[in-house]
Design goal:
Layout: H1 2-22, H2 29-37, H3 45-57, E1 62-64, E2 72-74, E3 82-85, E4 91-93, H4 101-107, E5 120-123, H5 126-132
Parallel strand pairs: 3-5
Antiparallel strand pairs: 1-2, 3-4
Helix pairs in contact: 1-2, 1-3, 2-3
Length: 133
């Protein structure tokens, strides 16, 4: 029976990962739950949370943590930059490559052993901008 439980969890994790990779809107766990529940009606929100954490630990997805907000999840595990709307909270991938020279530059200013970096641009998305005009 234990073997069957592990297999089901693996299947759930696979479905969660597949659904997350289909979207580019960096959903919160509750949004992932609603997406996956259509395919796995018996799945619980707790199971989705646990599997998102495992997928993040396995570096198969990215967990985007924004101070004071819900965690959001990105199906693209590669390090890349994000844009976040300060009004609606929308998160998009920044449309340019990672700046690798930034880590080298930072090393000359600190005694920290720099491993990687994350960068988030904060602004107002096109939809929220158009509401102001």
């Amino acid at each position: 029976m234990h073997q069957k439980q592990n297999h089901r969890t693996t299947q759930q994790r696979k479905v969660i990962l597949e659904e997350l990779k289909k979207v580019k809107n960096h959903p919160a766990a509750e949004d992932v739950y609603r997406m996956v529940k259509k395919l796995l009606p018996r799945i619980s929100l707790g199971t989705v949370y646990r599997n998102l954490e495992v997928l993040s630990e396995l570096k198969e997805i990215q967990q985007i943590e924004i101070a004071g907000n819900l965690k959001r999840f990105d199906g693209n595990p590669e390090n890349h930059y994000h844009l976040r709307c300060m009004i609606c909270g929308r998160i998009d991938d920044a449309p340019f490559e990672l700046e690798n020279g930034l880590e080298k530059k930072m090393r000359s200013f600190t005694d920290y052993n720099i491993i990687s970096h994350r960068l988030e641009f904060i602004g107002i998305c096109p939809e929220c901008s158009s509401k102001d005009t």
